[in-house]
Amino acid sequence: MVQPSPLDYAVVIGGANVDILGTAHSPLAMGDSNPGRVRCAPGGVARNIAENLARLGCGTHLLSAVGDDLFGSSLLASTAHAGVKVDHCWTLLQASTSTYVSLHDTHGDMAVAVNDMDIVERVSPELLSQQAALLQQAAVWVLDCNLSAQALAWCCNHHSSVPIFVDGVSAFKCLRIAPWLAKVHTIKLNQLEAQALCQLPCSTLPDRQAIAQHLHTQGVQNVVISLGSQGVFYSSQSTGDAQRAASGQLQALPCDAVNTTGAGDALMAGLVYAYLHKQSLPQAAEFAQGCAALTVGCEAANHPGLSVAAVTQLLDA
Questions:
Q1: Residue at 4 is within a domain
Q2: 5 within domain boundaries
């Protein structure tokens, strides 16, 4: 494995929010009060990816916006404590920190969620341009599709030669990246997002191969589709150098799922870590699966014990 330079770092741009999660003690009864447990934790797709990257030992900067409120200061402090550099985040006056409320069944699977993420819309091209020096010296950018179409357009028009990784976030929000697929190095989607973005089915292996081919034709080099309990599908196309085309599907690693909320964010962090360490996409997919498997085994969206050693031990078991 090739080690990255100590000066190499990732910049993760997108949503940071406070997660309020309720988990029922018994099967959910809709329209009624359900006994269970409620907890509050730092979250947000970009923020979660950034924390996971930092725990894997990668230099990581987060670019996100929080409100000038208690949630905002707490969110930045907890993220910095995990090893993420947050000094370039924006604290916006007269704005509320993004908040995400979700309800989970007894198996840890999300039943429904409500999010108040209006503040992410204020991450504007004007704010991003203020961080041009930080961005242009990065080894990789990771964008989540919580960003506005205007912010995504700015990033895709100003990335120069810096590779862009994109997390689809949701079936609705992933459509924002559609005009800029030619600028994307690696995109990570779930099945619903892949279907929505490509307007193609995603139920079978041939379906996923067709989706990957569609995205490769649009200019995306690497496609990763998370399949939940079915595992992960990956596909890369040859770039004409040492990079050879490869595709495949990995079965999910056995694990006791406690909370699936952060699995996709851990998967993306594993892909970025592997890229920085010059791993092939098949190797990256396997490592990323290990990150996701560890993460679903804990209550929080980020596993506090996530590390390269922990992932390696899990994969070698």
A1: no
A2: no
Predicted confidence at residue 77, as pLDDT, reads: 97
Tell me what pLDDT residue 5 has.
65
Q: What is the 3-state secondary structure (H, E, C) of 276-303?
A: HCCCCHHHHHHHHHHHHHHHHCCCCCCC
In a domain, 1, yes or no: no
| Residues 311, 72: Cα–Cα separation, whole Å | 31
Instruction: Give the predicted TM-score (pTM) of the model.
Output: 0.91
Structurally, how many domains does the chain consist of?
A: 1
CB atoms within 10 A of CB 20: 17
State pLDDT tens for residues 165-186. 999 999 999 999 999 999 999 9
Instruction: Name the stretches of the chain with pLDDT < 50.
Output: none
Burial of residue 209 (number of CB atoms within 10 Å: 0-12, 13-18, 19+): middle
What value does the CA radius of gyration of the chain take, rounded to a whole number of Å?
Answer: 18
Q: What is the CATH number of the domain that holds 268?
A: 3.40.1190.20
